């Protein structure tokens, strides 16, 4: 099953409800948890879950199992189900969970916090939910990534973000693309118009003849474009970028089709040069950033109410109260990117819920979207279900000053 469409659709729902404040999230983490619940659903709850998941629950569950039982080398992943007392009514559904899912009696809060730390590379210290005596069941998924760029950024002064950027006056240092290794272009999108795009690749890992990587794609639109539209365009551009490793021209605008001069998104100039053909050169400047977010997932559009009803009906008792929440963190800097998310879902009996050459320098000087996409190829051909899958996405509205360690050259740099 190709999962990028359903996850992008779910991501739009989730980001729209979160709003346009500075945040990071993993729609994939929430989608996976709902997919694991799916086989328990019948009747109206099943139909509602299929609408939210964007596919039938059996296909969604099978896809979730394939992802969680064969984790991507650069995306640590885990799932768990804990119950206060094992229910015979849930046994058949429990058997549909991934083989690597941790199951057992409901642990204490300290053990849940330890699980979150262990499965997020230490990036998330505390489990998103707090247990109470009324808690009957807790499910969770965790995703975590810590990568180094294949080619680190250079450093520029903040004014490189351009005269239209309020961030330029606040930041002393920002990131500039190196001479090679990063990809920058201007793309035409349906939802957000012309956008500035920057893609940085992780240092890949070779596993059993496969090249596992991650592409972190930043997408900026004009300042008046709604955040939801920029994020939707960013998912589309990022997935296409991960899949179009050969067709580098896909979705890209020629600099010769654009007017010279400055905009909030780029500065475009023309110089005389000696060459047999017209040349195009694109670089980018963008800020470092970090985010730590906690998202309430109880809105009806996100599907956890339907999941709660499905499990409640399966258990045959009275309607149960539920909580659904996600904690997510991310940091984007000169040398790499790290991110993690824990999505937690709990059922309780009595708690309320929670020819010339043209040069363009792209400027990420106002709020923009970021999507991190997993790649997994063998000989340049997709080799598994993780390839092209968006794992994390963010709306960057509060840039960070670069830390001192990002201002020094690494050992061995000439």
TrEMBL record:
Domain of life: Bacteria
InterPro entries per the UniProt record, alphabetical: Serpin_sf, Serpin_sf_1
Protein name per UniProt: Serpin family protein
Organism whose genome encodes this protein: Micromonospora globbae
